[in-house]
């Protein structure tokens, strides 16, 4: 992460309130919630999502991108009078500490990434409007990218390249991570190439031609492939959990027992590889264990078996009649099992479901 993307670490937060730090080519990604994100060390990125976020800029260069939609705050070290600043063509804001040379770049400050409040370490506060007015009247005003390269003392980077790099960083900071997490639910999270490919697929089509050219020429995707993605597993678990619960409940409904580790792992692998729940239900019914344990040759016997397995009681007359009519109209046994497994009563009887979690090694287990 930086003026050119470098291998580093992406630290992911959650949909709740998080406190994250990043340093030296690192990137803290708060996602949703009211997050506190802190930079330190060299060139570091802080990306906040929806929510009221606080950014603490203690790195030599801090790049801040907010997704908008909150009441956000930037805290800088030193005194407010130590800083000069500029607005960059395209709507970015840069603040430079005249004593230390440290800088903060707020990308898309005049757009969706606007931060509403600024404060120094002594508690002096300024609104976004006050900062922008001060930059125009007492700072460097509105400048172009060639001048920005001089202000930031960036060597070997031209104005066009810097503009393209800022575009990439802005788009990365404002990515919609939810669909990416959904697609990663089926990926091998220990394979950074899978993660890098998903990020690239979501990001690159949003870029201008010049930014795409920089992406290719500077090997940004290769840099992503060498990046550590810390905390991503927890977010993908959130995406996967509803499916994992559905499979575990189907297992218990079919076999009238809590899933064992080996069996659960096998069927979850099938589900995450694309097998649908109705198809899986058919395999459970056809399994040797199901056929040997339960008398399901007739529809009435099959319905009563599900009542006993799922609801721990024989079928009542009304329920027996309802499901018999559904099956007479063509509803297959697999779908009847699926409906029983997804019922509120089945979930209420499965107190063990609270212990379902994703193990560090990637396997789902029931504690």
From TrEMBL:
Cited InterPro entries: DUF4214, PBS_linker_sf, Serralysin-like_metalloprot_C
Pfam families associated with the record: DUF4214
The protein's name in its UniProt record: DUF4214 domain-containing protein
Residues covered by the DUF4214 domain: 283-348
Phylogenetic classification of the source organism: Bacteria, Pseudomonadati, Pseudomonadota, Gammaproteobacteria, Oceanospirillales
SUPFAM superfamilies assigned: beta-Roll
Organism, scientific name: Bisbaumannia pacifica
């Amino acid at each position: 992460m930086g003026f050119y993307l470098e291998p580093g670490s992406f630290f992911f937060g959650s949909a709740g309130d998080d406190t994250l730090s990043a340093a030296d080519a690192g990137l803290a990604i708060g996602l949703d919630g009211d997050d506190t994100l802190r930079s330190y060390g060299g060139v570091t990125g802080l990306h906040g999502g929806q929510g009221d976020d606080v950014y603490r800029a203690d790195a030599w260069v801090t790049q801040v991108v907010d997704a908008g939609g909150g009441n956000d705050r930037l805290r800088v070290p030193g005194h407010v009078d130590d800083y000069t600043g500029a607005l960059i063509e395209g709507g970015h804001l840069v603040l430079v500490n005249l004593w230390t040379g440290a800088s903060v770049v707020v990308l898309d400050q005049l757009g969706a990434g606007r931060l509403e409040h600024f404060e120094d370490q002594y508690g002096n506060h300024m609104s976004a409007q006050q900062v922008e007015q001060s930059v125009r009247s007492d700072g460097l005003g509105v400048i172009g990218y060639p001048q920005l390269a001089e202000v930031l003392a960036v060597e070997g980077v031209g104005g066009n390249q810097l503009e393209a790099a800022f575009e990439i960083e802005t788009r990365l900071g404002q990515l919609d991570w939810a669909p990416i997490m959904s697609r990663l639910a089926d990926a091998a999270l220990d394979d950074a190439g899978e993660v890098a490919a998903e990020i690239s697929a979501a990001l690159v089509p949003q870029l201008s031609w010049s930014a795409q050219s920089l992406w290719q020429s500077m090997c940004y995707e290769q840099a992503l492939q060498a990046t550590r993605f810390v905390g991503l597993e927890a977010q993908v678990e959130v995406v996967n959990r509803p499916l994992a619960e559905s499979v575990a409940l189907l297992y218990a409904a079919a076999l009238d027992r809590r899933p064992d580790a080996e069996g659960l792992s096998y069927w979850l692998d099938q589900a995450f590889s694309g097998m649908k729940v109705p198809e899986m239900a058919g395999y459970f019914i056809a399994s040797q264990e199901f056929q040997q344990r339960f008398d399901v040759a007739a529809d009435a016997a099959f319905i009563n078996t599900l009542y006993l397995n799922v609801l721990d009681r024989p079928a009542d007359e009304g329920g027996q009649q309802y499901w018999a009519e559904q099956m007479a109209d063509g509803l297959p046994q697999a779908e009847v099992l699926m409906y029983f497994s997804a019922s509120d009563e089945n979930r209420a009887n499965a107190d063990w479901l609270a212990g379902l979690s994703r193990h560090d090694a990637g396997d789902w287990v029931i504690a």
